[in-house]
Input
Amino acid sequence: MSKDKVNEGLFGAAKKFSDAFFDGLKNNATNSMLSKAKKQGMPSKVIQQMEKLQKEKNELDSLIKKYSK
Output
């Protein structure tokens, strides 16, 4: 295995790790904001729309991942 292949593997692994890390942070922030909105008595119509948007975003991310392979 050449040195270039090893470096590409290391950089690829580091990118995957950092992407997963920051996606986790983003998802936690989204979930906490949704939870906070519920606790503060945001109207149910707003909560439902926020949940719908989150579901649609997850579906879109899934499709993008599927077709980007």
User: Anything to note?
Assistant: The CA atoms of residues 21 and 42 lie 30 Å apart.
